[in-house]
Amino acid sequence: MSGKTLCRLCGRNTKEYVNMFSDEGLKRKLGIKTATCLQIPVSVCDVLPTIICHRCCDRLDDSYDLFERASKVQVFLESIYHPISELQIKEDPDSPNPEKLDELSQQKLSKKDGKRKKDMPSKPRICEALQGYPWTCVLCNSGVLDSLQDLSQHYTNSHNRPPIFKCIHCGRQYDRYRSFSKHCMLHQSPKKFECNICGKTFNQKSILNAHALVHTDNRPYPCEICGKSFKSTYALAVHSKLHLPVEKRSKFSCELCGRIFKTKNALECHGKMHNEERDFLCDICGKSFVSKGSLITHLGIHSEEKSYACNICNRGFRTERLLSKHSVSHTLMKPYQCEICYKSFREKGTLTAHTRIHTGVTPYKCDICEKSFRYLAILVVHKRQHTGEKPYTCSNCNRNFTNSSNYKKHLKRMHNSLTNTEDSKEKESETVIAEHELTDMEHIQSEVVVT
Where is this region: Disordered (predicted)? Predict the structure, then answer.
């Protein structure tokens, strides 16, 4: 039985459910309700199921309604048994009287209403967005705390440090309450800023402005050291770390294989390859990838347009990345040298693959027969023996082949018709296949720290 279809609350296998972190789940505040009513905090990265069946959703709604009503009743009862009139309150002679204060507040509200746009939805207040929020400590299993004050006191007494605020919707953590509360508002506020080019919507205008650069060639953030420009300050900040001395650069190590990466994002993408997580799916051919950048690069394969031409041999390519790789072939530069046999290569990925000849490492394992291979491309061809896939078709006799080598031999021996045009097409086909098969690996290898 698949754990992905088990209800988090009743444990039953169900086909009708709501994911706690889907749009409907966030709207219904299922995460807040489970933590508040049942003392079960659930995060977006939780290893346990994050779905709730419709029956439990209804019960949870009823429980939370009772919780809210009981909370209001407590305030009401407190006002009856401890009325405010019995408390001794000293009046400030300099403070305005209640009538004057009400008049001033009405004037301010009327001015704001005049400036407010009619079609702009009102934002929920921070106190409303965090009402009944399940405050939890990220350093220990102390359970759900009742209030923000209790959380601050817990961190002071138990950990001797300021509190850490964790979002139950996405798992992000903050050291400053102001940043945390503004982040929580993003989950509550409707996305009202829309891109007039692609239609995507955003919570903040600043994010929309940053997104708009995707549709242009503008790169307004240049590096002061090398002059390379970027579309965002974040990309510039990541790039700037490359100019730091090697000993001062941040290094992120994989716990499984020990490889070291320059950025945390590159390490996370690498980890997905270990876990075989490929969340980015091509809607044309069904192939999946570990990163969005890999998918975008792959999509160029399905385009017949070759808008990137080599200025030396005029050969056309579908993507700028393919053109860049080809351009190196017109030079004698081979900057990547093997430390064992001193052989040089034009690309870092080729050197990485070459070193496996010396180490004997075969990292690519067939999930059907468990045979291991040194290169990913060889594994792809090998798996065609199990699947029966034969992507190479002879245009003369319609015979199919599993790899380009056998296809070429067939053309020469049986038809003697491997013309320059067909050979060029074959090379292009191999380039496209190699680009597709090695896209994920090269995206990650480009972030590997050379030690």
Answer: 88-122
